[in-house]
Amino acid sequence: MTRVALLSSEPIRPRMAGIGIRYFELARRLPGLGIDVVLVSPADPEETRSLGLDVPVRRFEAGRLREILTDCTAAVAQGQLGNDLVLECPHLPVALDLYDPWLVENLSYVESLGFDPWRNDHATWVLQMSRGDFFLCSSEEQRSFYLGFLAALGRINPERIAVDPDLADLIAPVPFGVPEELPPHRPVLDPPAPGERRLLFGGLYDWYDPWTLLAALEQLEQPSWTLLLIRNPNPGSTPQRLLAKVEAHCRGLGWWGTRVRCIDWVPADRRYDLLRDVDLLVAPHRPSLETRLSLRTRFLDAMAAGCPVVTSAGGAMSRMLREHKAGWVVPPGDGAALALALAEAVEDEPARERSREGARELLRAFRWDRALEPLVRFCRAPRIDAAKDRWVQRPGTAAPPDPLLFRLRRKLRRLLGGA
Q1: If you placed Cys at 371, which of 43, 177, 390, 408 could pair as Cys (CB 3.0 to 4.6 Å)?
Q2: pLDDT at 403 over 90
């Protein structure tokens, strides 16, 4: 009997971000598609079981993974746990989940964290993409990007092409899915004030562009808007520098705590309730490599909840929104265009309904049963790529030392008892 381990680097517990939610959903849905699974994460298993999962739950412990997975015949892993998996369990067929391109995301944090994350991330990608047997990504844009990395490592080779010309059994899009039906709405927020329009940004990471949004909001004639930001549940691993800057800016305008509010991360099972409590999801971004590669899961959730969405051009999600007329897409950095889009998206009910119709059409491709098809095929017939060791090339990871000023600041922080 095939039993597949699901390894999430993020703890699976009631308050979790995107990757934790992704693996929680995999553990919920794969059994219904005939796959026997075990869920492994750094969380206390009791926290995980409190979510109501009806699958075996185990806690990850470094150095004990082979023992933890002793009854498993294949594994799917994400993030740093993929390293432990390929090093400790080379006998297992492995699918490595590259949905979250963390090497690219962490480039945004060089000023805060120095070059060490890049060194670690690059070495991790070399290790995982040289040893994995199947790879998951979020979109065709991501797939093309990762195919280049795999080609550089020798994973695209004559043997592989001879049996898999389109490389569909090497790497395939397995995006985040959406449910076919949402549970009844249970409000998370207090009722809005009369005439108030609530705009949700969500978690604020360094590749987003809150500044153009704030400039656009200053142009809106409708004064009764409130912008909601969300505190990250894992601030220790996700720098919150941008959120601190936005807070300082909004305090200077007299907006913080009134027109711009920060709320706590809601439990994963209440995220659709929050999206049904607001009038609009708006999350513009800057042009960047991260933008090109990200699917923007928050937009899928919003559309599933019937919440209209506004964003900047660039990346897979913006492309799909335009193709299906499922939301508003404006040029990056264009405050005037964003202000016009916000006004229409908030006040023009026929336009809002047209966007919902486009969203329903778009989301047909993101139902969980369809989104998981490539992964289900691997789980039903897991296999080790017998040719990988004959062709793989593993370049070393090289990076210059951190700048002197950064090293001095880091040493000072440590002397003062900081991180």
Answers
A1: 177
A2: no
